[in-house]
Structure formats: structure tokens, C-alpha cells
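note to self — DONT lose this again. spent like an hour looking for the file last time. sequence + predicted structure for the chain T wanted, 400 res
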Amino acid sequence: MQVQQVARGLLAFQLTGSYAAVGIVMMSWGIPQLLLSLVGGAVADRVNKRNVILIAQTGTGTIAFVTAILIITGVITIPILFAIGLVQGTLFAFNMPARQALLAELVPQSELANAIALNNMAMNATRIVGPAVAGVVIAVWDVGAAYLLQSLIYLAVLYFLYRLPPSTSHLRGAGSRGSVPQEIAVGLRYILGSPTLRLLMLLAFVPTMLGMPYMTLLPGFAVEELSRGPGSYGFMFTVTGIGAVVGSFIIAWMSAFPRKPLLQALTGVGWGAALLALGPGSLAFGYIGALVALALVGLFSTTFQTLNNTMLMAESRPEFYGRVMSVHMLTFSLFPFMSGPMGAVADQITAARTFTVLGASILVFILVASMLTPRYTLSAAEPADAGFPAERPRPTGAVP
């Protein structure tokens, strides 16, 4: 994924020279996720999650190989890249709810926070290696070679996925289960009926929609505004990944910290401030200033999202894991829709100024949300031996 993250954005910018075009390509990835994520969550709660992941990853690797051939033969165009994004987004809509839900089945509830932090640490480690490798491959060969490399890596991915144990939560209540649309409705009612889940979903949606489109602007930002090549662009993702890995270590170290809502609010403020600083930092200190700001963006965004993910799973019953995570994954389908408008804005005011606007928006939202829910923000989780039933996760805090 990280190799493709670099290759796709750079390819779209090379084909058009437009921030908006890169945003449109990103939107193609979000459209099927927006339409199918809830279906993917319902499916994950009905079948063996490992098999869903295997099928989705096989399809993703195949699409990467086809894309490489299209690039190498000179056939690739923006419309084709858009169509490929639709297919990849469809696979992602089924892959991620199943993946996140399966994680919660593989470890005891008491180790969930550490497991999610470790999972994010592993993914963010690829953000260190993947973009750097992609930058070198693109600089030495071309974008097609980067896609070909990605397709080969998926062979190893499939081997390790096959060795995972099958999931079992889909067997709970199987006899009384309704149709997929009915189960989606049940899942939505479950989330809307919990004030804590509602707030956590809001805290997932808004910062992600505002804070993630910056990645869409990085290819043009590196090439046009910082006058850097593919290698430097890839290293910007690498530095962001380093910050993210540090953030994952911090969350793993603080997994027993009782005031997770407060910690999430503080990291949300840090995320907004770091993204806000990316624009002025790059203008004042050039490429080095951008790298420092990106490292902080990676650190704070990862800690914020990991905390949010942990608290969502801790507040949910196992039979709803897939559907809860499918609603959460809608955040990753909506932010590509912000990429198009943000690309158009960057075409008018530059990417550096757009970063500042997005960071300030996150900062204001987190501060307002925290002030409106002070009892939740300052609440603490119950102690581990508080006697909660084993079949129901221990709450992280309650919204009045």
C-alpha cells in the first residue's frame, strides 16, 4: 500500500500536472468505500473474516500487477487510473472491516490496546520503508516498476494471512441473524444508541476528513513548491512513517493510562498544530521544515487514531465488531472526497497555505468538542478488576 501511495499520486501528477487531478484519482478509491463499507462490515460479522481478507488481498495484488503492465506499455490514462481506483476501493471496503474486527478476536480484551498499537506500529513501519523503496525504484526505473514490486510483495502477504486462525465471532447468534440490510440497520441502531460510540465516531470522522487529504497534495507540493524529485517525495512519506511508529510506541507504553479521552484530545490538538505548521515551516525552512512538520503530523495523527480505534473496540460487543469498524472505515472513504476540493483549493492558493487551513480546522474542532463534552474528556476507564462480565468489553468512559 505504501509503495502504491507514492506511485499513484506521482503518476497522476505526472499525467496532468494538476493537484485537482490527483484528488480526483483519490476520490475513485473512496466512492466504493462510501457505498460498500457498511456492507463489508455486515459481511465480516457473518463469515470467516480471514477468508474475506484473503480474497480481498488476492484481488488487490492482481490489480497492482495489471496496473504495472498498463504503465509499462504506455496505455495508462487518468480515466483508467480512476477505474482501477474504483476496483481497489471496493476490495478495501471488504478488507478493512474484516481485518480490524479479526484483530480484536486474536488477543484477550486486556491486551487489545497494545495489540492495536502493535498493529499500527507494523503498518507505520511500512510507511518508513515503503515510500523510500518506492522513491528509489521510481527514480532508477519508473512508476510501473513500483507497481510491479507491490504485486510481488502481496505473494508474501497471502502466505502469512493463510496461517492466521479462522475467526469465530460470526457464529454468535447465527440462527437469529437477518439479511445483510437488516444487519446493517441493527448495527447502526447499536452505534446510535450509545452516546460514547456516537462521540468516538464523530472524533474519527472530522479530523480524518480534514487531516488526511494533505497526503494527496504532497506529490505536487514536493515537485512544484519545494522543487524536489521522486526520491525526496518518497522520503517525506518515510519521515511521516517514522513519526507514526514513535506514536505507536507511545500508545503501547501508555496502554494502561486511564484517561484515554483526555490523551486523545491532547494528541488531536497536536495533530492540528503540526499540520498547521507544515505550511509556514516549509516556507521558512524549506524542505527541512516540511520534514520536521510531517514527522509531527505522523506522530500525533497515529496516536489520535489508535486511541480512537482502541476505545471504539472496547466499547463494542464482539458480535458488532465488523459493523462498528465498517462505520469507522467510512472515514477513510470520505476523506478522498475532500481530496478533490482541497486539490482545487491548492491549485489556487498553493498547497502550503492549504495545509495551514486544514490544520487550523482540526485544532478548532478538537478544542470545541472537548469543551462541549468535559465530563467525557476528563473521564477515566474503570480499573481492570472492576468485575465487568467477560463477554462484554470494559467501557473506556461514558458520555453523559
